[in-house]
Design a protein that fits this description.
Layout: H1 5-18, H2 23-33, H3 42-50, H4 55-77, H5 82-85, H6 88-108, H7 116-132, H8 136-151, H9 160-190, E1 204-208, H10 209-228, E2 234-240, E3 252-255, H11 257-278, E4 289-295, E5 299-306, H12 313-316, H13 345-355, E6 359-365, E7 369-377, H14 392-399, H15 408-415
Helix pairs in contact: 2-4, 4-6, 4-9, 6-7, 6-8, 7-9, 9-13, 10-11, 11-13
Length: 417
């Protein structure tokens, strides 16, 4: 379907009025959004740290790449529904992105004058960018809640507004992950900020999956015990189809440890809560979680199994929607970290898994339990970034009228599971 001129002109007007972007900045954003982000693999990121890549080389690459990535997502803000774009929290996030774009762009014009002072200021700018964007997820979530309170929207999953917001948030957060990885990797390599002796920049070439899974379980268990005064045990098992690849029952891969921890912790937290709540009136004790870590020839798969009663199909299709949660929303006044209820844990974890060409999904039996699956690329050459690009296809997702659903949608939905 062709994009209508009225949609395009309306979006351009919204960009200039709602986001209040300065004309010079808007021109720069248009310029950099014409470029596609450079897709990197874990192998290439590792090579930055082991092939004597200089700080100058990294500076030259990032001073263009980060504005390109920022510009691509900034263009999409304009195509959000008016009722969301006008919310104060969403306006604030837009201002953060504009400020970060301007901050980094100034270095793009200094490629002929790379002094130690310039490099130090660039490092400070990247560090500030990370801090500025650290609450993007929470602030956008607040913006959606503001819209819901004011317009009573985003309740119907089939509504075009909901699908646009879901699509945008996936892309915004994936873009944020990508920029954060580049900035953090550079700072850990060349500014020695948060440097880990086991890692090359932000990446651990021998990331111990079992160790991270055990740490994630322990953290989730403590949280569960605080809330319910009980927590199931967890049984771990490693399996490898590659002979002699298991050392001390451990499996490792090249990966970013904090990403892996984030995913496993979220799934552990959900599984523990489900088991405790499903068996709270049973006297036979709590069945343990079971974690299987399996190494194949191309992938590493982590399966977290629970006997927590499962999820019915009507809920399962919504489980990766933002702001959807099977738990009641936490009270804003509570002091402890919430066990669940915000509805961002699973969709964000899925983005982390997909960022390096992996995936995350749930298989559930209603009335029995759930298997949560994480699949990651074993080889760093196969683990390539999944990055949003602003183009005509993306534009059509925002501007095309909602297609009327029919019975065949149920079949296509099954193909995506």
């Amino acid at each position: 379907m062709r994009l209508s001129l009225c949609h395009l002109s309306k979006a351009i007007l919204r960009r200039s009025s709602s986001l209040a972007m300065r004309s010079s900045t808007a021109e720069d954003v248009d310029k950099f959004a014409q470029y596609h982000p450079t897709v990197l693999t874990l192998k290439r990121l590792i090579d930055f740290g082991i092939e004597n890549t200089s700080t100058d080389d990294s500076f030259l690459f990032l001073s263009k790449e980060i504005p390109v990535r920022l510009a691509n997502i900034m263009k999409e803000f304009s195509f959000l529904p008016d009722k969301l774009l006008s919310m104060p929290s969403v306006q604030l996030v837009g201002q953060w992105y504009e400020q970060s774009f301007q901050d980094v762009l100034q270095f793009n014009e200094r490629h002929s004058d790379i002094s130690e002072d310039v490099l130090n200021k660039f490092n400070e700018t990247l560090d500030l960018l990370q801090k500025r964007h650290s609450t993007v997820v929470e602030t956008m979530a607040e913006g959606i809640l503001e819209m819901k309170r004011e317009h009573n929207e985003y309740a119907d999953d089939g509504h075009h507004t909901a699908s646009c917001i879901q699509y945008f948030l996936d892309r915004l957060y994936a873009n944020r992950i990508g920029i954060e990885v580049l900035a953090k990797h550079h700072l850990m390599l060349f500014a020695k900020m948060g440097k880990d002796e086991h890692c090359i920049g932000a990446i651990d070439p021998e990331c111990d999956v079992m160790s991270i899974a055990e740490d994630a379980y322990e953290s989730a268990r403590v949280l569960c015990d605080q809330y319910y005064s009980a927590a199931p045990e967890c049984e771990f098992e490693c399996h490898s189809s590659v002979s002699n690849s298991l050392i001390d029952n451990r499996i490792s891969l090249t990966y970013i440890p904090c990403h892996l921890y984030h995913m496993i912790f979220e799934l552990m937290k959900n599984a523990l809560r489900a088991v405790v709540e499903h068996h709270r009136h049973h006297t036979s004790g709590l069945p343990p979680l079971k974690v299987l870590i399996c190494q194949g020839h191309k992938d590493i798969t982590i399966k977290i199994s629970d006997h927590g009663g499962g999820i019915c199909r009507s809920q399962l299709v919504k489980i990766f929607n933002y702001l959807y949660s099977t738990a009641p929303r936490p009270d804003d006044a509570q002091t402890m970290a919430p066990m669940a209820g915000f509805g961002y844990g699973l969709p964000l974890s899925k983005l982390y898994a997909r960022y390096f060409n992996g995936d995350l999904w749930l298989n559930s039996i209603d009335g029995f339990g759930t298997d949560a699956m994480i699949c990651l690329k074993l080889l760093p050459t196969d683990a390539s970034e999944l990055l949003p690009v602003f183009n005509r296809t993306a534009l059509s997702k925002y501007t095309q009228a909602e297609r009327v659903a029919d019975w065949s949608d149920q079949i296509s939905g099954l193909e995506n599971r």
